[in-house]
Amino acid sequence: QVQLVESGGGLVQAGGSLRLSCVASGRTLSRYGMGWFRQAPGKEREFVAGILLSGGNTYLSSSVKGRFTISRDNAKNTVYLQMNSLKPEDTAVYFCAASTRWPSLANPYWGQGTQVTVSS
Fold first, then answer.
1. 3-state SS of 9-55?
2. 40, burial (CB in 10 Å: exposed 0-12, middle 13-18, buried 19+)
3. 120 partner at 20 to 30 Å CA-CA among 29, 36, 86, 103?
4. What is the full per-residue pLDDT of the chain (120 aa) written as tens digits?
């Protein structure tokens, strides 16, 4: 089992920044990829960003590329999502995910989610 705990969500004005954190515990995570998904009201959960814990390969969805950055601190078992130039359409619950399937992050372990609200 892998446990994931997110933090860092909140309310921010358009153009502002937030940094989300996800702390992982449980199994040895060296073979895992981790990432962030988001789900807005009435919409399906969508991929935002992913990172391979060994090697640090990253990829981001086109909707956030150039504004968001994903990084990790393996010593702390923590993955970060730095979100800059936030837009109202970024408003969603953001979920941390960990999976042995890369780059799809299919069938992941999920965190409980953290709310991000961007006001216009």
1. CEEEECCCCEEEEEEEEECCCCCCEEEEEEECCCCCCEEEEEEECCC
2. middle
3. 36
4. 899 999 999 999 999 999 999 999 987 787 899 999 999 999 999 999 999 988 889 999 999 999 999 999 989 999 999 999 999 999 999 999 999 998 889 999 999 999 999 999
| 61/64 Cα distance (integer angstroms) | 6
DSSP β-bridge partners for residue 72: 79
In the block, residue with structure tokens 């962030």:
36
Amino acid (1-letter code) at residue 81: L
Residues 70, 22: Cα–Cα separation, whole Å: 11
Q: Strand, coil or helix: what is 112? A: coil
